[in-house]
Design goal:
mainly alpha; two-stranded antiparallel ribbon; 9 helices; 6 strands; globular
Length: 258
């Protein structure tokens, strides 16, 4: 089990974007969210830093961890020339750690947090949640961060959410997953609270924006492809088998499907 296991931002993002059956609930672009979470892990660990508009290694060097995806991501980003922008960093991680979802799931499966199921026909891999503790803890932290409730008799300010919690808010927001954390009457206030927290911190703001751009590009491409397919299917004669006439050896015409 996961006793003593430090769950990373990337692993937490994966847990929060799985439904009970182990399917991806985030949809298009979720791998970009995972890549951004890995970048956040490296920055929060002090291995990478935001240097203006690019990410560069710090003098601290590689992260002191046996977490293979983190070390792989660091190696790829530290060696990138020129130093990558956050958008480029996401593409680098997606390329070098492909398939990034399975790469990040490995430790969680080994620790018994996730299971593994493969479809019989298309062999689609799913990871049902076997031990919900880590995901539930992270979800409670997000809900607390979004809460605006405070006893008016309490003169002490509300405790600021942890940096990794604000990063998760920024990475979940492009997929509209923050709405699931609050009942409908409180969602507008929660969205405003999330926006304020994200905008006030450089790392969440920048990585959240990078994920939004990647997801937006992907969604636009999928929509264009769907529109193109629908247009082709609406053409007269679309879907019918075209026939052309040829000659048989006995002189009678035959039809050949093309």
């Amino acid at each position: 089990m996961m006793s003593g296991m430090d769950v990373t931002v990337a692993e937490t993002f994966l847990l929060l974007t799985l439904d009970e059956a182990g399917k991806d609930a985030a949809g298009a672009g979720s791998d970009a969210g995972l890549a951004a979470a890995l970048v956040a892990d490296l920055v929060l660990a002090g291995a990478l830093q935001l240097d203006g508009e690019v990410l560069t290694p710090t003098p601290a060097g590689p992260p002191a961890t046996d977490n293979v995806p983190l070390r792989q991501a660091y190696t790829a980003l530290a060696a990138a020339e020129p130093a990558p922008t956050p958008d480029d960093a996401l593409q680098t991680v997606l390329r070098e750690l492909s398939p990034v979802r399975e790469t990040i799931a490995t430790r969680l499966v080994a620790a018994g947090v996730l299971g593994t199921e493969r479809g019989r026909i298309f062999r689609v891999v799913r990871h049902p949640i076997a031990e919900p503790g880590a995901g539930d803890t992270a979800r409670a932290g997000l809900i607390a961060a979004l809460s605006t409730d405070q006893d008016p008799r309490d003169s002490a300010p509300a405790q600021a959410p942890r940096p990794d919690t604000v990063v998760l808010l920024a990475l979940l927001r492009p997929f509209d997953l923050l709405e699931q954390l609050e009942p409908a009457p409180h969602r507008a206030e929660a969205a405003a609270r999330a926006a304020a927290l994200i905008d006030a911190a450089e790392l969440p703001r920048i990585l959240g924006g990078a994920v939004e751009r990647v997801r937006g590009t992907l969604v636009a491409a999928l929509a264009a492809a769907a529109a193109s397919t629908a247009a082709a299917e609406s053409l007269p004669g679309a879907g019918r088998t075209k026939m052309r006439t040829g000659n048989t050896s006995c002189g009678r015409p035959n039809t050949i499907p093309v």
